[in-house]
Amino acid sequence: MVTETTAWNHFSKYIRTRDCLKTTGNREYGKCYTCGVIKPFANLDAGHFVKSTHKDIKFDERNVHAQCVQCNHHLGGNEAVYTLKMVDEYGRETVDYLMSRKHIPKVHDFDKLSAEYREKLKNVENPLEI
Questions:
Q1: pLDDT of residue 42
Q2: What are phi and psi of 129, to 5 degrees?
Q3: Are strands 38-40 and 44-48 parallel, antiparallel or unpaired?
Q4: CB neighbours (10 Å) of residue 112?
Q5: Taking each helix axis from N to C terminus, what angle separates 110-125 and 4-24, rounded to the nearest 10 degrees?
Q6: What 3-state class would DSSP assign to 12?
Q7: Taking the model in full, what pTM does it have?
Q8: DSSP assignment of 21-49, as one string?
Q9: What is the DSSP string of 52-112?
């Protein structure tokens, strides 16, 4: 049986890899979603827009982006900037939806989540050539 920590580790690595590839084109460096500074993969967190203690949206890919440690930890998520970027990228409706889910508990299937994000990570790291 997979633990929440293991599922989170797979999800977090997928999010950071996804965002590194999206922002710099390689897996070794990525741009912080909120401050825009390019950091090594090891110095990026998977930072939540709506905090992860709210279990329903903990594993929602729209709610989590690569953030530098400074923004995610020392600036409390850099919430004002995060909000503006989220509205710009996803629209007000999605932001409102995510915010509306913050008090809704959910029991996740960590075995399923872990397997899903191991597979997604494999696909993003080694995309099929067409």
A1: 96
A2: -90, 130
A3: unpaired
A4: 11
A5: 20
A6: helix
A7: 0.88
A8: HHHHSSSSEEE-TTT--EEEGGGEEEEES
A9: TTSGGGTT-GGGEEEEEHIIIIITTT-HHHHHHHHHHHH-HHHHHHHHHTTT------HHH
Domain boundaries, the chain: 4-124
Summarize pLDDT for 82-123 with one digit per residue, the tens: 999 999 999 999 999 999 988 887 778 888 888 989 999 888
- Tell me phi and psi for residue 48, to 5 degrees: -85, 140
SS3 state of residue 50? coil
For residue 33, give both structure tokens: 């979603």
Q: What is the largest CA-CA distance in the chain?
A: 43
Residues 6+ apart with CB under 8 A from 74: none
